[in-house]
Amino acid sequence: MPVTAARSGRLTDLPVLLVAVVWGSSYLAAKGVTTEQTVAAVLVLRFAVALPVLVAAGWRRLRGLSAVQLRGAGLLGLILAGIFLLETYGVVHTSATNAGLIISLTMVFTPLAESRVRGTRLPGAFMAAAGLSVLGVALLTQGTGFSAPNGGDLLMLGAAVARTVHVLAMSRMESVRGADALSLTTVQLGGAVVVFAALVALPGTGASPWAAAAGFGAGDWLGLLYLSAFCTLFAFFVQMWAVRRTSPSRVSLLLGTEPVWAAAVGIAVGGDRPGWPGLLGAVLVLAGTAWGRSVADRERGPGKTTEVATAGTGAEATGAETAV
């Protein structure tokens, strides 16, 4: 490979890797600004910053969407809202390390679900990798001793399942095929915000965005802006830029390091202390998901990787996936 091409590849890789680092840190950032009573309110505030930028950046293409594409993207937005709610409630009730590692099971769940839908069989190596990941999560949720997983762990597991549903729906819905990625993302996030706004309008569902904002200190505002500006906008536009300069598979591979950074940030900055069962579980989750991902990508074939995130805050799926 020519030196200039190799250097160009590294320059493309660095911003994408930074997105993975940012996404990995997003679990701790969300945990710092959110309580059980402010989940929906914080989500409204977060996207009140990001959504207008996306609308302004893609207004012409957004106007070009057909009514069928708008309905399809709106339906995907409902699923996306469920993912955000499960992840955010989950991270409130578990550690940032657990959240980032459990959600990485999407990398295993998605090929499993695809194989069921298509009536194909995955190789034994993938099934072994999936088993390793599940064993890792079982150990990870034990903390410093053996106990049942807490509610936050189960919510993050539900979010991983919801992400899988979102990926499958996006890949199989005829109505959104051919839609511009920026427009598709914007409509999905807009639909999700409508859900969050409806939730905060219901009595007894938690604080309003205004009440939550009134209780924010300087650190909370910085955390919210970090989630909006870096974990959403920066991540989206870097991916849009990088996927034109390298392969989707390469972008997906780099973004797949997100759980590594989630664990590193949770332990080093967040003070998570998973104990020896949790540490062993973290290693098994990372090994299992990386192994399973490589097997699934080989089965899929070159140029057919579908797990390229283009929107948001931390998962890999064409269109608009998220992490908290």
TrEMBL record:
Pfam families: EamA. It is found in: Cell membrane. Keywords: Cell membrane, Membrane, Transmembrane, Transmembrane helix. The chain crosses the membrane at residues 39-58, 70-89, 95-113, 125-145, 151-169, 181-201, 221-241, 253-270, 276-296. Residues 296-324 are annotated as: Disordered. Residues 14-141, 152-290 form the EamA domain. It is a multi-pass membrane protein. This is EamA domain-containing protein. Residues 305-324 have a biased composition (Low complexity). One of its GO terms (cellular component) is plasma membrane. The lineage of its organism: Bacteria, Bacillati, Actinomycetota, Actinomycetes, Kitasatosporales. Belongs to the EamA transporter family. SUPFAM superfamilies: Multidrug resistance efflux transporter EmrE. PANTHER family: EAMA DOMAIN-CONTAINING PROTEIN (PTHR42920:SF5), OS03G0707200 PROTEIN-RELATED (PTHR42920).
